[in-house]
Amino acid sequence: MNMIHDFLHQFKNTFTAPSFQHFARVVMGFAQITGPRAVTEVNDSANWSRHHSTIYDFFRKGKWQHQYIAQDLMLWYLRTCKRPEAPLLLCIDDTKNFKPHARVIEKLCWHAEHHKRVRANVKTEDGQELSAFGVVGEKGHCWVTLGVLHEEKTGWCFMPMNASIFVREKHTEVFKTKHDLALELVEQLPYSKDALLVGDNFYGTQNFVNKLKCPVLSLLKSTAVGYRPLIAPMDKTYRGRPKRYGEKVHLATFLDNPERLTPTEVFVYGKNHKLEYACFEGLLKGHTRPVKVILVKGLRKANFLLFTNDLKLTPEQMIAYYGARFQIELGFRELKQELGAFNYRLRSETSVLRYVHLAFVAYALLKFLSVKAIVKPLQTPWYKPKGRASLKRVQQWMRDVFQGNGIFKGVSPDFFPSINPTNHDFITLQGA
């Protein structure tokens, strides 16, 4: 298919000719993988006829950089997927990949699983027993991941672009916080200055937001305090610094007023929701730019606050964009369960980063085939799905088309034979 051919060749300038052959096989291996998901299975899925040690050398010794892969993937998205009128939405979050039995993988350290807590009885020095709660955690990697939120007629989806490994301070000589890593990930992507970064309240702190060159949309604590701008410069008749802020406002209390609430309807979480919002424009202490804060009522059980320093966004857009952020959790689940993106058995940090970024490339290809309705959902008398095909369905289609055709056996990277699939009831080809 010309479409897959064009997709793979977006990355050709990053590799030498032999390395590009490895790259194409690894990506296609991820796209067709089934059963146990690890390096060897990726190798087997791509009909790799050479010894499996060559793929390990490709990850360990190859003359290529994973940052360039992220840049090429972003340029492909801007050229192929993004509509000119649509905003460029970036989304950032972190996910953990625990490897408690690993011994030789670099950058492993202990990470907490904050949503899991255990209760235990603790004895004090005087012999009393107290009940205490503790956080569950294991040894592994914490991946700070940056991706794109893309909207189609079939809904929103998340495409990961770039990632880094967060390592605790005592395990590294050069310590970087999650905020430092996030800033690097954003700066490495082209055209990121024109994007809107959507994050949770961890990535809505003043130190992080002030360092970013692009605007931010984030959750805000319910105890947040805002300030009205100064109406006019005040004559300084007192000692000390001049005032920067006007009237102090407790945002949650101020906005939760029936007189300030505006009813609206927003398509979020896959359906239309009737809700209410109240808006405040002013300043947050420590932030260098003015912000717009909205209180959302009726979307969840509890009210919540959103803020952005892009004052052009409407409240409806703020709610819809932040609601689309949930797609990053679905993306992490598919990356882990369907592609095995984090099932690496590699030792060096370089190899691990390269492995994960190539999994991102394969995931973007599969998502593109799905959201563009190139692969239709399989319909049976008892199951009639609507919208786009699932990732597993797209992988099945890839196996049906490419398995047994020897598409990569002795074939140059510039040549892709035309394939005539036999199962036309669920396949619609574009550019074939």
Q: Your description of this structure?
A:
The protein has 432 residues and is an alpha+beta fold. It has two domains: 2-101 and 139-194 and 328-402, no CATH class; 218-231 and 243-317, no CATH class. The protein is built from twelve helices and twelve strands. The chain has helices at residues 2-9, 17-32, 39-45, 53-61, 66-80, 178-188, 206-211, 251-255, 315-324, 327-339, 349-371, 391-402, and strands at residues 89-98, 109-123, 129-152, 155-166, 196-199, 216-220, 225-227, 248-250, 262-268, 271-284, 291-297, 304-308. Strands 1, 2, 3, 4, 5, 6, 7, 8, 9, 10, 11 and 12 form a twelve-stranded mixed sheet that branches. A hairpin with a 6-residue loop joins strand 11 (291-297) and strand 12. Helix 2 (17-32) crosses helix 3 (39-45), helix 2 packs across helix 11 and helix 5 (66-80) packs parallel to helix 11 (349-371). The termini are close together. 36% of the residues are buried. The model is unreliable at 405-432 (pLDDT under 50).
Strand content: 25-35%
Secondary-structure element order, N to C: HHHHHEEEEHEHEEEHEEEEHHHH
Mean pLDDT: 84
| Mass-distribution shape | globular
User: What is the CA-based Rg, rounded?
Assistant: 25 Å
